[in-house]
Amino acid sequence: MTEPVAERVLVSFEPDGAPARQVRVPAGVTLFDAASWNGIAVDSTCGGHGTCRKCVVRVVEGDVPVSRLDPRAFGADELRAGWRLACMAPARADVRVAVPPLVTRPKAATVGVGRQVILRPAVQKRCVQLTEATLADQRTDLERLLAVLDDLEVRADLHALRNLPRALRSADHRVTAVLVDDVLVDVEPGDTSDRRFGVAFDLGTTTVVATLLDLGTGTPVAVSSMLNPQQPFGGDVITRISATMMDPDALGRLTALAHSCLDQLVGEVCATGEVRRHEVYEIALAGNATMTHIALGIDPEPLGVAPFVMASRSFDGMRAADLGVAVHPGAAAYAFPALGAYVGGDIVAGALASGMDRDKRVRLFVDVGTNCEIVLSDGDRILATAAPAGPAFEGAQIRCGMRAAPGAIESVKISDDDVALQVIGDVAPVGLCGSGLVDAVAALVQAGLLDASGRLLAADVAATVAPGLAGRLRQVGQERVFVLHGDIYLSQRDVRELQFAKAAIATGWRLLAGELGIEPADIQQVLLAGSFGSYLSPTSAVRIGLVPGVPVTRIVSAGNVAGEGAKMALLSLRERAAAQALLEEVRYVELSDRPDFNDRFIDELSFPT
Amino acid sequence: MTEPVAERVLVSFEPDGAPARQVRVPAGVTLFDAASWNGIAVDSTCGGHGTCRKCVVRVVEGDVPVSRLDPRAFGADELRAGWRLACMAPARADVRVAVPPLVTRPKAATVGVGRQVILRPAVQKRCVQLTEATLADQRTDLERLLAVLDDLEVRADLHALRNLPRALRSADHRVTAVLVDDVLVDVEPGDTSDRRFGVAFDLGTTTVVATLLDLGTGTPVAVSSMLNPQQPFGGDVITRISATMMDPDALGRLTALAHSCLDQLVGEVCATGEVRRHEVYEIALAGNATMTHIALGIDPEPLGVAPFVMASRSFDGMRAADLGVAVHPGAAAYAFPALGAYVGGDIVAGALASGMDRDKRVRLFVDVGTNCEIVLSDGDRILATAAPAGPAFEGAQIRCGMRAAPGAIESVKISDDDVALQVIGDVAPVGLCGSGLVDAVAALVQAGLLDASGRLLAADVAATVAPGLAGRLRQVGQERVFVLHGDIYLSQRDVRELQFAKAAIATGWRLLAGELGIEPADIQQVLLAGSFGSYLSPTSAVRIGLVPGVPVTRIVSAGNVAGEGAKMALLSLRERAAAQALLEEVRYVELSDRPDFNDRFIDELSFPT
Q1: What tens digit of pLDDT does each residue of A194-242 get?
Q2: What is the pLDDT of residues B528-549, one digit of tens each?
Q3: Largest CA-CA distance found in chain B, in angstroms, rounded
Q4: pLDDT, chain A, mean
Q5: Burial of B510 per CB tally in 10 Å (0-12, 13-18, 19+)
Q6: Residue A8 above 90 pLDDT?
Q7: What single DSSP character describes residue A449?
Q8: Do B1 and A138 make contact, defined as CB atoms within 8 angstroms?
Q9: The predicted structure's pLDDT at residue B331
Q10: Which of A78, A150, A505, A588 is most open to solvent, judged by the fewest CB atoms within 10 Å of its CB?
Q11: What is the pLDDT of residue A1?
C-alpha cells in the first residue's frame, strides 16, 4: 500500500529563560507533543486531554486555530494575543511558540538510544483528603472523589467502585486514587503514591525480556528474561504460524505459552524488586506482529500467507489480564502498533527508541534476524520494509551452525597463517553462531580465499594466495570447506546461505534508498538493532555488504531497542502518541511484488570488492 | 442536597407533511433527543454520535449555535439557513425546527405506560460484504471492515479481533458486524442480522423478573421471574445491608446469589424463546440502589446508615459478565442510575416508563413498599423523595400477615352484616397480605368501626353503629381485633402499623406538594407503581389517605414500570439519555433532616374523615 508520507513543519520553541529550539514534526501534531517529543517541558497534569488547562503557550508567529477548549481557558484578549492550550493546538504550518516558565519541574529519564524522556506515565497516583458526607451533602463517594480530581476527566472501573466505600471509611477519607490514563482503576487507603510500577516486555520470537519499572522515578527495578517457550512449535514466526494452520489446538496452546511466559517473568521481576503484583498497574509489550497476535489469541494465519494481512495494526483498550498477566486487576496493557505483517510493533518500538522520527541525519535502522526489518530515514521521510533473510543468522541451515549459546564461536579473526576464535562462555568451541558466521565469511573474503562471487578458492590457487591457511581448505563429502577448529568448519553451502541472507537485506536498504533518491554513501548512521545486531562486528558487516560501506564509526550497535521502546511507552503517554504518529509517518514498502526485486537481489549476492 | 431544577424550553417540531408538535424539554437537551423522547422520528444511523450526519434539521426560529461537527455536514449557506445536525444541537431557548422527510421509516414499539419508543438499541448488526486483500491493498482486516462502517466511530474489542480473521475467511468475506454502542463486540460469518437479543431485568428486593427482547422488532420473546434468593439474608434492603455489616463474607454471598439468580433467569428465557445465550448482546437492569450495589459487588453499608451515601449514582461501562450473566462475552450491561440511596435505579426506570418527564399534567408517582418512593411533577419541575413505610405492606409485623401468595386475603369488602374476601389462588384463606390489609382498614373506617384516630370501637358502641358486624370485634390477649375469617383477624396493633406506613407516605407527597406550591387536589393523576401498587384498591388507598383524595378514575395502576423502563433502555439509546437527564431534572428531597417532618407525620397518622 503506497501512501503519501506526512508533511513536516518547523516549530520553534522559545522556553522562558532558555535558548530557543527548532524541531521538525509531522504537520498536525500538537504543540504539546512536538515539545514533549523533543524534551521541551510544558506544564500539564491531565496528560494532554485538554482538561487541566495548564499547558498554556503563546503563539508568537504563525497561525494556530482556536480550539473548542481554548475559550474555557482564555479570555478574548488572550486568544488574540496567541495564547493556546498546547495539547489542543495542531502545528499545521511553521510556527514560533513562547513557553512560559514551568510551575513544576518535570522528571525525566534517559531511555533508548540516548533519548531523554519526560516522565508522564499513563499510571498516575493522587493522594487526596476528602470530607465526610452529611445529610446536607449526600454526594456519592465517587462524586466526592472526582470533585478533587477536577483537572482530569475520569471514569471509574468496577474494581475501583468496589474498593471505594471501604477505602474511604477505613482511612479517615484519606485515599490514593490510582489512574491509568482516564480510568480510575483503584482507590487505596492512605497515601500509596510512591508505589507505582509497570512491566515492559520485549516479546521476541526467541527470547522474552521483562523489565520492572518504577513509574515515579523512571528507573528500572529488576530485569528478567527467558527463552520463548513456544520454541517447540518452531524457531521462527513462519513455523509457528504453520503450526496453527495444521493443528486447530495449536493457537490456544501457543497463546497459553505466551501468557505463562509473561506471567512467570512478572513473578521474577516482582520478587527481585520487592514489588507486589498488584502494585503493577500497567504493562507494555513490544513484539512482532505474529508474537503479538498469538499473545492476544488472534489467529495469525493470514500473516503467514500472501497478501500478509494483519487482523489489526493497533490493539487499544487491552488489559494485562488479556495477556494472561496477573497484576493489578484493573491494569492496562499497551501493545505497540505494527506497520505491517513483517514490520511489527517491535520495530515501531525500536524506531521510537532510536529517535528515527526526530533526527535530521540520514539514518538506516536494521534489525537483523530470520526476518530482517529495515527502516531508512532521510530526516524528513521514513520508509520501512521487511527482508526475508532466512535462518542463517540463527545458525540454522549452517553445517556447524548453532545458536548464540555457550560453545558458539561468536567472533573469527584470520591472519596470514592463523585463525583466532572467540567462544561464548570460554569453553571449547562447539559450533558457529550468526556473528561468527559473518566474521568467518568476511575474514575469508579479506584473506582472498573467497572470491566476490562467494566461491572458495581451489586448493592450488589458495596455496599461492594464502599459503599459511590453504591447508584448512578441505573436502567434506561433495563440499569444499574451510576448517575453523577441529571438526568445526565453514562449508561452501554455508557461504551460499549467508549470501542469500545478506543479499535480501542489502536489496531491502538499496531499494529504500532508491525510493528516497539517496545513495548508500549518504547514510550518516547505521543502527544495528536486536540481540543479534548487538553482537555483529561492524567491520565484518561492511565487508560482506550486509550494511552500506560507511566508516565503521558510523555503525552503532543499538542494543535491545524494542525493549527500550516498551519502557518509553510506560514512562510517557507522549511517547505512545509518537509511536502512533509513526504509523502515519512511516511508509511501508512491500518488496514481494516489486518487479525489480529479483534483478537487484542477484546483484547483491556478490561480496563487495 | 438541594440543586436547582433544570429550566425547560419549548421546542416546536414541524415534521414534513405532518402537523407541528410542541414539546417541553430541559434546557440544553439536543434537538435529536427532544424529538426522540416525544416519538418524533429524525433520521440517524450512528445513534447520536455526530458521525453519520443524517439527523439534519432546519432551525426556523430561535438561535441554535453551530456545533464543531456542523461544518463537516453543511456549507456556509446551509448553516446560515439554519441547517444543523440535530444530535449536536442543544435547545437552550425556545426554538422552532423543521424536520425533513425521513429516508427510512423507523420502527417503534409501545412500552411502559403507553410510551411509544422509536427503536434505536445500543446493539446494532450490519451485514457487509468486504473485498479480499491483495499485495496492493494490505489493509488490515479491521481497517477493511471499518471502512464500510464509515457512518460510525467504532473501536473493536479483543473478542471481535479474535473472531475477525476466521469469520472473514470462512464466509467469503461476507460477515455481520455486531456493535454495542460504539464497540465492535463480534464479527459473525454470513448474515446474522435478524438475530439480536437483550434481556431486561427488574431486580427487586423480593422478586426478580427477566424479559428477553428481540431488539430488531422490539417485541418481548419470553418472560421469567423468581423470588430473590437473597431472602434468607432478610426481607428488605436494611436487613440485607445489616447482614453485610455483621459478616464479612455476606457481601460476597449476596453478590453470588444475585448473579446466579440473573443467570438462571437468562437460561429460562433463552430456553423458552429458543435463543442462544451468545445471541444476547446486552442486558439492562433496574434495581434499587442496594440491590444494584450488591449485584455489582459494591459494599452497600454506607447506604444503610446516615447520611445514606451511594458509591456512585451511575455505573458506566459495565459488562454482563460483571453481573455474573453468561451471554455473549462482549455483552454490555446497562444499570439504571439512581437519584439517591433510597430513590434508586428502579424509580428512575419507573419515572421514565411513566413519562414523568414529559407530561404537562400534575402527576404523582408512588411506588408502595417497605421503602416507598414518591415522585411528584407539576409538568415543569420534578421532585422525588423516599418514605420509610416499614414492612406492613409486605405483611410483616402484622399479626395474621403474610406475603401476597396463595391463601392470602388480597381484597376485603365489608357490607352491613357481612365480610366478603378475595383470596389468592382460590384456596381457603391463610392470612392477610398488604392489599388486603389496606382494604380491611379502609372498609372498617367506612363502616365506622374504626375512628379517625385509628381506634377500633368499643363493643357497645359498635353494636349501635354496625350491629351486623359488632360480633366480629373481639379481644385476643391484650388486644382488640376484628375477625375476618375463622382465626384470621385484624388487630389494633396492625391498624397502628398501617397508620405509620401510610403517614410516612402521605407526609412524603404532602411535603413535595408544598415544595412545588400545589395542593393535593391539584394532582391530576396518581400512578401506583410496583407489584404491590398494582394490587392496591384505589378506593381503599384514598379512603385511608395513602394517596391524595382525588377521583379514583385519576388513580392508575402502572404495573411493573421498573421492568418496563429496563426494556426501554434496551430498545433505545435515546431513552437512556432521557434516564440520565432525569438525574439532572429531578430534585431529590431528603426528608430525614427536615425539621417539619415530625409535625406533618403526626398530622397524617389520622384517617381522612
Answers
A1: 999 999 999 999 899 999 999 999 999 999 999 999 999 988 899 999 9
A2: 987 777 788 899 999 999 999 9
A3: 103
A4: 92
A5: buried
A6: no
A7: S
A8: yes
A9: 98
A10: A150
A11: 38
φ, ψ of residue A13 to 5 degrees: the values are -95, 135
CB atoms within 10 A of CB A436: 32
Distances (CA, A) of A404 to A207, A373, A498, A561, B418: 12, 20, 16, 19, 102
| Contact by Cβ (8 Å): B375, B533 | no
**Main-chain phi, psi angles of B155, to 5 degrees:** -120, 145
Judging contacts by C-beta atoms under 8 Å, the chain B residues touching residue A164 are 298, 311-312
Task: Give CA–CA dist A134/A155, Å, rounded.
Answer: 24
- All residues of chain B having their beta carbon less than 8 Å from the beta carbon of residue A136 are 1, 593
Size of interface A-B (CB pairs under 8 A): 137
d(CA B373, CA A373): 67
Buried b (16+ CB within 10 A) or exposed e, A141-164: bbbbbbeebeebebebbbbbbbbb
User: Looking at B181-242, which runs of residues are DSSP E strands?
Assistant: 183-189, 197-203, 207-214, 220-227
In the numeric block, the cell 471514569 is attached to A155
Q: Identify the pLDDT of residue A3.
A: 43
Phi/psi-derived region of residue A583, left when phi > 0, alpha when psi is between -120 and 50, beta in every other case: alpha
Residue in B1, B138, B302 nearest the CB of A137? B1
- Chain A residues with CB under 8 Å of B155 CB are 316-317
Residue A428 burial (CB < 10 Å; 0-12/13-18/19+)? Answer: exposed
SS in 3 state form for B131-188? CCCECCECCCHHHHHHHCCCCCCCEECHHHHHHHHHHHHHCCCEEEEEEECCEEEEEE
Q: Domains, chain B, ranges and CATH?
A: 8-104 (3.10.20.30), 123-189 (3.10.20.880), 197-346 (3.30.420.480), 359-391+498-604 (3.30.420.40), 393-493 (no CATH)
Residues present in chain B in total: 609
Instruction: Assess: ipTM above 0.85.
Output: yes
pLDDT tens across B498-518, in order? 999 999 999 999 999 999 999
Contact (CB<8Å) B141/A341: no
Place of cell 480550539: A67
Q: CA of A449 to nearest chain B CA: how many angstroms apart?
A: 42
Show the cell assigned to A194: 510512591
Cα Rg, chain B, nearest whole Å: 27
Q: Grid coordinates standing for B455?
A: 381506634
Q: What does each C-alpha distance from B360 to B19, B32, B288 come to in angstroms?
A: 19, 20, 27
Query: By mean pLDDT, which of A277-281, B17-21, B303-307 is the weakest?
Result: B17-21
Q: Cell 417541553 belongs to which residue?
A: B24
Query: What's the pLDDT at B6?
Result: 55
3-state secondary structure (DSSP) of residue A362: coil
Q: Decide if A278 contacts A337 (C-beta within 8 A).
A: no
The beta-strand segments (E) located in A320-453 are 332-335, 363-367, 371-377, 382-388, 408-414, 419-423, 431-432
User: Cα–Cα distance between B203 and B210 in angstroms, integer?
Assistant: 8
Neighbours of A596 (CB within 10 A): 11
With beta carbons under 8 A apart, name residues in chain B contacting A299.
162, 165-166
**Partner residue opposite B138 with nearest CB, options A301, A315, A590:** A590
Q: How far apart are CA B523 and CA B389, in angstroms?
A: 22
d(CA A389, CA A392): 8
**Phi, psi angles (nearest 5°) of residue B480:** -80, 135
Could you tell me which chain A residue has the CA closest to the CA of B165?
A: A311
Chain B: give the shortest CA distance to residue A313, in Å: 7
Cα–Cα dist B283/B226, whole Å:
17
